[in-house]
Batch of 4 targets.
Target 1
Amino acid sequence: MEFINLKAQYQALKPEIDAAIQSVVESTHFIGGPPVAALEKELAAFAGRKHCITCGNGTDALQLAFMALGIGAGDAVFCPDITFIASVEPACMLGAVPVFCDIVPDTYNLCPESLERQIQAVLAEGRLTPKAVVAVDILGNPCDYDAVVPVCEAYGLTLIEDAAQSFGASYKGRRTGSFGRVATTSFFPVKPLGCYGDGGAVFTDDPELDRLIRSLCVHGKGPGGKYDNIRVGLNSRLDALQAAVLLPKLHALQDSEMDARQAVAARYNTAFAGKLTTPYVAEGSVSAYAQYALLAEDTALRNRIVSHLKEREIPYMIYYPTPQHALPVYRELPQYGEAFPHANDYCARTFSLPMYPYLEEAEQDQVIRAVLEVL
Ligand SMILES: *Cc1c(COP(=O)(O)O)cnc(C)c1O
């Protein structure tokens, strides 16, 4: 068994994927071109956005967003304490300072009250300018935007949605990727929509930001083309091969994979109800279940479960063992009074089970049995 079996997906989509790859190879048009344009159009329509700009990876997508929004030295960028480093790392590259906020104990997403406390603490200190909030749809489960948006508005902060884990999910009838002034996603192979290498995308409704990001991702090109450089930018583009692979995968995600993820999660939920803390998906939300994470009652039990899984050769992961504020790279930063009780508790008790649309019921039962053996 694999933690995420990409081979099963390839076997299911092989004719379309092989044909798409073959046609790019024959065209010898490897960067940009028709498949990239077609993909951007479909991604924008799928997410419900006016513009989609593809790029090299999800980290670059965030960096392009931060650059386009003019985030830099002296700015504070707020971010949940439970996420992958890439949510805020590119802002640090630009000289901004990350300020972490605790999570809510049910969805493990950004806590709006902690966000507000941290904004007030930064304002009270007077050293940094509160500038932006990166809301992450952690594990594929949408953040509570109705609670976070008013805090951003009250303090004049720009909201960025990091939808790297949640592509295909939705919140109150709106797809992820549609929240914030800018949203980003990643096509890293094991994300809900993954390509065969690195890839990412930025989403916005603002034509000015669209224009700016399209310049920033090609060395700051100007109206005169790529040798008319008018600003410092990146070289961050999606390969035509990746776009060609993503198109049939996007169709599969829409047609069957999101439903299949829900079905796996539902079976796991039933099996573990009352025994472990199962994922909480709020009314009106649909999770992309990038990960299926459970919480054990305490660290000792979590560790006993995962060592038993290891013995049974059932793959598991811990997303994430360390909250952002405690990472070696960030732990010297001021924490503005936040103690992160929920983030610390989450890391101490979480573990994730195999989860992908092609996980067969027999395999699910094997996973369930192994976990229940310990309980
Ligand atoms: C994967 C991920 C990213 C970065 O994406 P890459 O394509 O790997 O650069 C950013 N944020 C979150 C929350 C992620 O999970």
Note: Residues 14 and 94 are 41 Å apart (CA to CA).
Target 2
Amino acid sequence: MQPIMNTYGRLPVTFTHGKGAYLYDTEGKTYLDALSGIAVCGLGHAHPAVTEAIRSQAEKLIHTSNIYGIARQQELAEKLTALSGMDNVFFSNSGAEANEAAFKIARKYGHSKGVNIPTILVMEGAFHGRTLATLTATANPAAQAGFGPLVEGFQRVPFNDLQAAKDAVANNKNIVAIMMEPVQGEGGVTAATDEFMNGIRALCDEQELLLILDEIQTGNARTGRYFAYQYYNWQPDVLTTAKGLGNGVPIGACLAKGKAAEMLQPGNHGSTYGGNPLACGTACTVVDVIKNENYCERVTELSDRIRSGIRNAMEGTQYVSEIRGKGLMIGVKLNTQESAVSIMKSALESGLLLNVTAGNVIRLLPPFVLTNDEADQVVQKVCTQINAFFADQS
Ligand SMILES: *Cc1c(COP(=O)(O)O)cnc(C)c1O
């Protein structure tokens, strides 16, 4: 039997090292990375400032405990609250754990209002993680199969359907919070419409519900704002992030504002590793580099370049039905009923790392450190794969 549990369908490649947007495998082959470890390594591989942050922090202190003060955690909390306008933050080690903290905040908030079965309204197409509660919130029957009983206190409505959310809230007095991703990642790279985002915020205000935004994937400049809600002129009550925050060093964060920020009190929640000096020291540098080197603007430039590049190259073919998502969360929807998962493998063979989600959506999550030249190579390689896929079909 294999010594690693069989939880992943892995591609036949193992990397030894990386630099910027490139990865190198055990055979010495080079790959252009248009996936960034699934939206994690926004600053690319072996970024000198990140490497130095890890090295210098490891030399001083890796871990103490949350029973003591942690200066780097304090520093990161100040940076994140300043740039988000949220009031405070709880640090975890992963995205799912950040969402678990958000659920506990919502439940405590519900009980504080006298609601006995506090319920969180979640969306079709959502992905919120793999722990039991986050799996319940995730809208993937295949991922849930075999793991019942799932967790109580979740109800689901279609994504981008404001009326459905209003009706659900009107018909269920137990609903205390609405949770969504500004751009659904795993669910097929689908952005919430402006109408839906603004409408859900207004609905939460009217009905005194907490708006929980899962920005685990959309956060940390991925969509062209530090957080995707910053495209709008309001804030969520609870905000979770992870992936890009540590550029690969595990860290998650659950930020809260107003009443939501007062829910968790000593003894209510905790994590042994969460917010330790190594993770927070690294994330402080990641946040600084993103801000100081204007990566939000660069993400927008690269996004425009890659999107228009693919659009131009595919002009005249019927292969692509839509290029969607926001910033460097790019979904290229193919005009096919066939599964396009084979593109992942053939792209790998050609030296390009990408992902295929929801059956026929090519998912690109390239690092922000791409040069224009590298962005053009991503376009060219992706289009070569699309052309080959359709040539094979006909
Ligand atoms: C990746 C992801 C998660 C889960 O994060 P983990 O660190 O894998 O637990 C949750 N929500 C969204 C939107 C994600 O993209």
Note: The mean pLDDT is 97.
Target 3
Amino acid sequence: MSKWLAAVIPLAAVLFFMTPMTSARAAIYRRNSRELRRLSRFYDWEMDQNGLRPVGTSLKTARSLHLKKTCANDSLILSTIMAPYNRHKVPGGGVQVEVEVWVQEITTISDITSDFQLDIYISEMWLDPALAYSDLEPCKYNLSLNSELLKKLWTPNSCFINSKTANIHESPFPNVFLMIYPNGSVWTNYRLKLSGPCEMDLTGFPFDTVACHLTFESFNYNTDEVQMNWSPVGVELMREKMELADYALVKRFNYRNEVQYPAGFWHELTMKFVFKRRYGWYILQAYLPTFLTIFISWIAFALGTKAIPARTMLGVNSLLAMTFQFGNIIRNLPRVSYVKAIDVW
Ligand SMILES: *[C@@H]1O[C@H](CO)[C@@H](O)[C@H](O)[C@H]1NC(C)=O
Ligand SMILES: *[C@@H]1O[C@H](CO)[C@@H](O)[C@H](O)[C@H]1NC(C)=O
Ligand SMILES: *[C@@H]1O[C@H](CO)[C@@H](O)[C@H](O)[C@H]1NC(C)=O
């Protein structure tokens, strides 16, 4: 009996003391390893004399970063940056606005009204330090927004000053793109349908070229406040070749002028397109038929002097045919008062 007791009591004592101790230790281990697992998700680890620590960071910053694991979502960033924002305040002195144009399509060139129509994407980029949010631990390193928010931001108020019409594509919503970067860079992009003026010089018609240009500038701000620049891309075509029914684009360039107005100097960004008329149609429809008509009228000489009615008929017919032919071509041109190449012919 006493033997049996002697065996059981120490065992019971061991069990009595061990059970709570192991479970407490297990809890500590569990907590630590959970913590370790969580931390090790973010960092590489290395050993030094103080024990295990994340590579390249002190344990303190590792902990504070770890505690701020919840990043700022878009709505939180927006509400934070927009609350103190004043859209009438020009961001800093001399905002640099970088402009880039992508030409999607050139649809028409009208000889009568001397204008052309095109679809473009125009993109502007500037820095607005009041919109910087890099200190907020953003979840995403760019904010993509719509035109509603753009109305609440400062913009350079730039426009095409020589366009005849300009419309933002609206289907199914305004085609406006707005992105804000953590450093406060604002990037906007519009899809526009524009028509602008062309300079036509018909003296070489139909072997002439047409130059069309559009000028973009900030409407409200002179160079003290806004400086406009072409981006390195400048004007780019989205299609390999821009060919219309009767014109082909041969050259394009872009440049910047500084122009003086009563209220100061303005930067004007101009893009210019040069088109060459495709004269194939005129060869077939004007030069060849009139050449044949003249040729046929020479038959009159072969008819001899006695065939008066036939000769008269031929002469008058040729004259009518020619007048009709030219009338057809001239009808689609503006009524200029100088002599064109085709008139000489
Ligand atoms: C954004 O974060 C805030 C605060 O952290 C939260 O209240 C809100 O629900 C979040 N919004 C979305 C769309 O996740
Ligand atoms: C915006 O951020 C996302 C992820 O953060 C990235 O994939 C995308 O390329 C960025 N877009 C631009 C235009 O910078
Ligand atoms: C701001 O960040 C964007 C995207 O990373 C970059 O393209 C732009 O040049 C930066 N702007 C400035 C002024 O550093």
Note: The chain has three domains: 2-67, 95-277, 280-344.
Target 4
Amino acid sequence: MNARIPYTRPSITEREMRYAAAAVANEWGDRCYDSIHRFEAMFGQHLGVSHAIATSSCTGALHLGLAGLSVGAGDEVILADTNWIASVAPIVHLGATPVFVDILPDTWCVDPIRVEREITTKTKAIVAVHLYGNLCDMDALRAIGERHGIPVIEDAAEAIGSVWKGRRAGSMGAFGTFSFHGTKTLTTGEGGMLVTNDAAIYERVLALSNHGRTRGQPKQFWPDMVGFKYKMSNVQAAIGCAQLERVEELVARKREVLYAYRQRLGRLPGVAMNPEPPDGVNGAWMPTVVFAQHTGVARERLQAAFAADNIDARVFFWPLSGLPMFTPARSNTNAWSIPSRAINLPSFHDICAQDIDRVCRVIEGCVDA
Ligand SMILES: *Cc1c(COP(=O)(O)O)cnc(C)c1O
């Protein structure tokens, strides 16, 4: 049996270990938030935004941000049908109704025309998720948001390193969120971040993230509202500081891996991979292959071929509306069809050329078969 190829794995160096050890040894008492504050400041600077709040996860960051926008019962929030459950769970927890719209066939991100069609008097927010590092059409989405007075939010969990016309993914919406889960390009094990340029959203989310205690509140142990507890730990933030100092290197390597796959697989007949806008950058979190309908190549065949070669390839996200707790939106034809003929490829930073070759040969074998 060939050696196992995992699909993701973080890139951890001596620097991450040193920063974590220093935080464990020294940062307690008065210094118990030192690494958190440093990580937040560095992250805000990297993204070009004025405010950043470290959280325990991206899911938590989304929950805080949506609560900060007062999303609640009776409201609707529009997002792509193709997504991980994390992008919709906070909407449901807040009592709002998710409205699932179709994706575009080339970027696999939300279709702005479908978004505008679904806007009602109840629409409270639009969530733009940059799927697999691919970019949403932010010009179109922001124009729609402005036309209707509805905030556009970016879930940029998969898009660190992605850039839309000179602006980093996550920095263009009312707020943006990130994940530092162990599978993501930059990791703290578990963790997330909320970023915004809006001082009012920042203050509200900061209070909500601190059990509802506002910054100006002089009384101790005095919450002004019922909030949340979604904080990142200081030791995780120390790891994040080390990762962030390496962010250019981490993203560059992910892009190299995507490029290597695209060079070889992107030219196969009937095969599409993650696109890059001409005036943008794809952070290349998850190299993905989508077969055209006419090829007849199906997910199950791809899964079986990768399993036979001991390679951990993953399925493209199922349409959320097809999950048992939602109502099937079968008119979202791209979201319902693409996953049945697509697969995510292994892309960890230190994957070697021989392993990329093994992965490519599996795909080539499926084309020939
Ligand atoms: C990973 C991911 C999340 C969830 O992140 P957690 O940190 O695990 O909560 C949310 N949205 C998207 C788009 C993701 O890829």
Note: The chain is about 35% helix and 15% strand.
